Amino acid sequence: xxxxxxxxxxxxxxxxxxxxxxxxxxxxxxxxxxxxxxxxxxxxxxxxxxxxxxxxxxxxxxxxxxxxxxxxxxxxxxxxxxxxxxxxxxxxxxxxxxxxxxxxxxxxxxxxxxxxxxxxxxxxxxxxxxxxxxxxxxxxxxxxxxxxxxxxxxxxxxxxxxxxxxxxxxxxxxxxxxxxxxxxxxxxxxxxxxxxxxxxxxxxxxxxxxxxxxxxxxxxxxxxxxxxxxxxxxxxxxxxxxxxxxxxxxxxxxxxxxxxxxxxxxxxxxxxxxxxxxxxxxx
Length: 283
Prior knowledge:
Strand content: 25-35%
Largest sheet: 7 strands, mixed, barrel
């Protein structure tokens, strides 16, 4: 059986693909890679289908030993990647012979790197996806030293470039947001959202928590629970917004002042604590 062995995981290493949309009526969020384009790129580099499962690595520290001949690629923010201790670079396909060890360092910027392996990580899917959902616990458990991950059969030829420069996450983000459905619960919602917010350490795959000047309500009371979508900007009684990411709950009772444009979510997924965010309300 084609496989790789986990030697070390860093703070958190999770198997992720592009998620399991379509189960909100069962209370199951979409999950999947928070930086989808980074996983797609890694899969392309090793010849996989874009939807193949890889590993989402939080702040580096993942180390793997090949138990077969395979090709890997690491994408996301710039990061040191070594093969048996020798730097080999990220954002390029790298061949691993059986018995060789690949390690991912800690990125200087950003949060999440993505590792793809030729054939894809072939653990059993749940509800059509191999993604780990940290809120509900659906999907494969977080990786641990000693795990052996089965791999599928290679499907395509690894594709490389002479030079493919990784993107460095910005320290200040401008995030497009569509106001509503409950923006009328807040005083001057467009200008209030457009102030400077700061990402807090309490953020995770469920949501990005922000600090700043609390948003002021103009309506009292609470709502019955309503459906929540990825990118929803919910405002709890503290007045400090949070942006729901892929593992968000499917319903919530606090008002949603707006919804972040899907194209802006990968950048938010790479936003470290201390990153500044300015929402740009759209007409």
